[in-house]
Amino acid sequence: MQPALGTFATTGRNLVSIPGTNNWDMSLHKTFKLYERMVLQFRADAFNPWNHTEFSAIGKTITTPSTFGKVTAAKNARNLMLGLRLQW
């Protein structure tokens, strides 16, 4: 019996998967005491600081040979955030 066109026959789930994930987040902060009860904090947050490419989609439909088996999308690249906080 032939499988239906565009299917992987009777294979189990997750036959085709995307490459692994590198999930790195970093945060650095420095606190400065200005007065007895006043504090200034500088923060630097980085999401994906090493800028590893993380793929998010792969073509799984056999009937579209232009994208089958190819990576078709990627997640966001490096993201940096700076902050300044005054606490009194």
Could you explain the architecture of this structure?
The chain has no helices and five strands. By secondary structure, it is mostly beta strands. The strands form two sheets. Strands 1-2-5 form a three-stranded antiparallel β-sheet, with no helix packed on it. A hairpin with a 5-residue loop joins strand 1 and strand 2. The model has no long low-confidence stretch (mean pLDDT 84).
- Helicity, in percent? under 10%
SS-based structural class? Answer: mainly beta
The side-by-side strand order for the widest beta sheet comes to 1-2-5
**pLDDT < 50 runs, ≥5 residues:** none
CA(first)-CA(last) distance? 75 Å
Radius of gyration, rounded? 23 Å
Strand tally, please?
5
Can I get a quick summary?
With 88 residues, the chain is mainly beta. The chain has strands spanning 25-33, 39-47, 55-58, 71-74, 79-87.
Features:
single chain; 88 residues; mainly beta; three-stranded antiparallel sheet; two-stranded antiparallel ribbon; 5 strands
Secondary structure elements and pairings:
Blueprint: E1 25-33, E2 39-47, E3 55-58, E4 71-74, E5 79-87
Antiparallel strand pairs: 1-2, 2-5, 3-4
